[in-house]
Automatic annotation (TrEMBL):
Keywords recorded for this protein, A-Z: Carbohydrate metabolism, Cytoplasm, Hydrolase, Magnesium, Metal-binding
UniProt-listed Enzyme Commission number(s): 3.1.3.11
Domain Fructose-1-6-bisphosphatase class I N-terminal: 4-189
Protein name per UniProt: Fructose-1,6-bisphosphatase class 1
Binding site for substrate: 113-116, 204
Gene that produces this protein: fbp
Fructose-1-6-bisphosphatase class 1 C-terminal domain location: 194-327
Phylogenetic placement of the source organism: Bacteria, Pseudomonadati, Pseudomonadota, Gammaproteobacteria, Moraxellales
Binding site for Mg(2+) 2: 110, 113, 276
Compartmental location: Cytoplasm
Length: 333
C-alpha cells in the first residue's frame, strides 16, 4: 500500500494537469475535510443523536433526515469559508448559494446519498461535481447549466465499513481510504477499469410494472439467464444507495439503472442530473464504462434546472450499449 496522502497526490498531479490549479486543489481538499467530518458524525450515529428525521422537507418534497441536514451544513460551511467557490448548489437546498465573486469554480453536491440507509446503519455516500465559472464577478444560476462533459472534477465518498474517496480529475479514477488514526485519505487504488462485460445488474424491481418496453425486455432477458438468449445467468444487487452501487461497479463491473418509469409520468426519472447522474457519469466514463439516459449520453445532456431529474443507465460498456440499442429498436417498443 502507498503512503501517498490526498494532498500529496494533488500536488503531484498539479505538475502534469494544466487544469488542476492551486485553487481547484484547495477546493477538493476542502470537500475532503467536510467529508471526514460527515464520516465522524455517521460513525457516532445514535450516540450523538444523529439518526431520524429532521422534521423538514427538501425542495423536492422529500423528508430530510438529520444527517442530510448536518452533512449539507458541514459541506457548505467548510467550502464557503475556504473562499474557492463562486457559488454552490446542493440537492438539499432550493437555490444556489453565492460564494466568493473572485473564485473560479462552482460546486454541486448530494451531501448524503442513500438517505433511507441512515437509520438502518447501512452504507451512504456524498457525491460532488465541480464546474468552471467562465466569467468574472458574481455567479448566476445560468453558470451551472453546463453539460456534464464540462465537469473538471467529480467524485464521491462512500461511508461503508471503511470510508473511501473516489476521485476523477478527468485523467482516470483513483481511490483513497480514510486512515482514521492519522486523519488522512491515503491512495489505495489507481486507474480503475470497469470490465466491459458483466453478469450483475442493479435495479429496483418493485417498479417493474411501470418500466418502458426496452428496460422490461433487457431485465427479462437477464432473468431468463442460461435458458434465454443471453445464454448466461445474472445476479442482482441493490444497495439502495447509488454511491454503493456505483462503487461495486467501479470495483468489479455491472450495470446500474434507475430508468424512466410511468409511476409518476411527470418525473423524468428518480435521480438528479446535477448531483448524481453527471458526477457518476464522469467517473464511469473515466473508468472505461458507459453512461446513458437510454437515449443519449448523460454527459451530453444540456441542463435546464438545478434539480432536474433524469433516467440513468451506467456501468459495463457492452451491457449499457445493449440496453441503449433496445431503446432504438422498434421491436422493443
Ligand atoms: O428508494 P429506492 O427506489 O430504492 O431508490 C434508491 C435510490 O435513491 C437514492 O437514495 C436517491 O438519493 P438520495 O438518498 O440522495 O435522495 C439513490 O442513492 C438510490 O440509488
Ligand atoms: Mg442521492
Ligand atoms: Mg441525498
Amino acid at each position: 500500500m502507498s503512503n501517498i496522502t490526498l494532498n500529496q497526490y494533488l500536488l503531484d498531479r498539479q505538475q502534469r494537469l494544466a487544469h488542476l490549479t492551486p485553487d481547484l486543489t484547495q477546493l477538493i481538499v476542502q470537500v475532503s475535510i467536510a467529508c471526514k467530518a460527515i464520516s465522524a458524525a455517521l460513525h457516532k450515529g445514535a450516540l450523538a443523536n444523529m439518526l431520524g428525521s429532521a422534521g423538514s422537507d427538501n425542495v423536492q418534497g422529500e423528508v430530510q433526515k438529520k444527517l442530510d441536514v448536518v452533512s449539507n451544513v458541514l459541506l457548505m460551511d467548510t467550502v464557503l469559508s475556504g473562499g474557492k467557490v463562486a457559488a454552490l448548489a446542493s440537492e438539499e437546498m432550493d437555490e444556489m448559494i453565492a460564494g466568493n465573486d473572485d473564485a473560479k469554480y462552482l460546486l454541486l453536491f448530494d451531501p448524503l446519498d442513500g438517505s433511507s440507509n441512515i437509520d438502518i446503519n447501512m452504507s451512504v455516500g456524498t457525491i460532488f461535481s465541480i464546474l468552471q465559472q467562465d466569467h468574472a464577478g458574481a455567479a448566476r444560476f445560468e453558470d451551472f447549466m453546463q453539460e456534464g462533459r464540462k465537469q473538471v472534477t467529480a467524485g464521491y465518498v462512500l461511508y461503508g465499513p471503511s470510508t473511501m474517496l473516489v476521485l476523477t480529475l478527468g485523467d482516470g479514477v483513483d481511490v483513497f481510504t480514510l486512515d482514521r488514526d492519522v486523519g488522512e485519505f491515503i491512495l489505495t487504488a489507481e486507474r480503475l477499469s470497469i470490465p466491459e462485460d458483466t453478469q450483475e445488474f442493479a435495479i429496483n424491481s418493485s417498479n417493474t410494472r411501470h418500466w418502458e418496453a426496452p428496460v422490461k425486455r433487457y431485465i427479462d432477458e437477464c432473468i431468463a439467464g442460461k435458458t434465454g438468449i443471453r445464454g448466461k445467468d445474472f445476479n442482482m444487487r441493490w444497495v439502495a444507495c447509488m454511491v454503493g452501487d456505483i462503487h461495486r461497479i467501479l470495483t468489479r463491473g455491472g450495470i446500474f439503472m434507475y430508468p424512466y418509469d410511468l409511476k409518476d409520468p411527470s418525473k423524468a426519472g428518480r435521480l438528479r442530473l446535477m448531483y448524481e447522474a453527471n458526477p457518476m457519469g464522469m467517473l464511469i466514463e473515466q473508468a472505461g464504462g458507459a453512461a446513458s439516459t437510454g437515449r443519449q449520453p448523460i454527459l451530453d445532456v444540456k441542463p435546464n434546472d438545478l434539480h432536474q431529474r433524469i433516467p440513468v443507465i451506467l456501468g459495463s460498456k457492452n451491457e449499457v450499449e445493449r440496453l441503449v440499442s433496445y431503446h432504438q429498436d422498434p421491436a422493443s417498443v
